[in-house]
Amino acid sequence: MNLKKLILIALSTITVSAFVGCGEQNEEEVDHQGNQRTGETVAIVNGQEIDKEEFEETKDYFAQIYEAQGIDLDEDEEMNEQVTRQVIDELVSEELLIQEAKDLEISPNEELVEEELEEYKNEFEDDDQLEEQLGLSVEQLEQQISDSLMIDKLIDEQVQDDDLNISEDELKQMYDQQIEQQQEMMPEDEEIDEAELPEFEEIKSDLEEMALEEKKQEQVGKLIHELKDESDIEILY
């Protein structure tokens, strides 16, 4: 998800229904994204189960990111546990945002859903190759795109850029931090050529965009925190 932009207490025991017939599914065996349940659950959010298979797929994605940075989660027990908690929290947060959007009767633009779906499908020879490469059916991919756009729409409605005030001093502080980071990246025996550094006004609009995004993320974090306080969440893993 895009966020994967595809984004979470008391323990309890869950009884999961067995499959009814060969290859058939009932409503309790499929989550809201259309994914087949494996019979194991890592969390329950207001009655909605988060399946262990979804958790493992998401964690595998995180593991690949860490591996690219030279960190093997299989060999770092402490980091592995941190990532496990992080992934569960991400999935719970995503579920809370989806539920909030539905409660507010927010729905994604169906044309945008179709456009994004077609963009994905165009990357593959056919639907079979898409499903093999992504590990998702076309219907599941469409649902994930729909959820992602619905969350984006919720955030846009709940967090307005006009409400995020950014002062000139904040932007200049960000500029100074960027310059310091550039200098720290230089070898110890070399000095940065100040003539090559951009002036504040040259990158002011970029800094403002970064500051807006940071403040928006802070507001999203507050929204998720409020939703958690109002919700019945059980972590089972």
UniProtKB/TrEMBL annotation:
InterPro entries: PrsA_foldase, Trigger_fact/SurA_dom_sf
EC number: 5.2.1.8
Gene3D superfamilies in UniProt: Porin chaperone SurA, peptide-binding domain (1.10.4030.10)
Keyword field contains Transmembrane helix: no
Catalytic activity: [protein]-peptidylproline (omega=180) = [protein]-peptidylproline (omega=0)
This protein's UniProt keywords: Isomerase, Rotamase, Signal
Gene Ontology molecular functions: peptidyl-prolyl cis-trans isomerase activity
Signal peptide range in chain numbering: 1-20
Pfam families per the UniProt record, alphabetical: SurA_N_3
Protein name: peptidylprolyl isomerase
